[in-house]
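Anyone up for a design puzzle?
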């Protein structure tokens, strides 16, 4: 790559050629540049963030809530069966 003498020549034609050459070099660099930003995730990044994608505490609370509901439903079912059994004997 030749050393560009921008601003150091007294001949304006030579200076214009130097500027044109520098601009061409600049344009070639711009055309060959690749983006450094990637929009896809690597498998390592996906694996690293996997635990944070799940809300473990919310899942645990949901499981506990459903088990409490099932326990209460079973208790009410037993009570209804007991009350129903007493009525059949009373009549």
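Challenge accepted. My sequence:
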């Amino acid at each position: 790559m030749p050393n560009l003498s921008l601003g150091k020549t007294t001949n304006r034609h030579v200076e214009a050629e130097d500027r044109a050459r520098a601009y061409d070099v600049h344009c070639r660099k711009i055309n060959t540049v690749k983006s450094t930003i990637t929009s896809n995730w690597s498998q390592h990044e996906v694996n690293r963030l996997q635990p944070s994608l799940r809300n473990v505490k919310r899942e645990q609370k949901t499981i506990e809530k459903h088990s409490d509901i099932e326990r209460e439903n079973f208790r009410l079912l037993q009570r209804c069966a007991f009350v129903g059994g007493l009525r059949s004997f009373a009549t």
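A detail worth pointing out: The first helix runs from residue 12 to 32.
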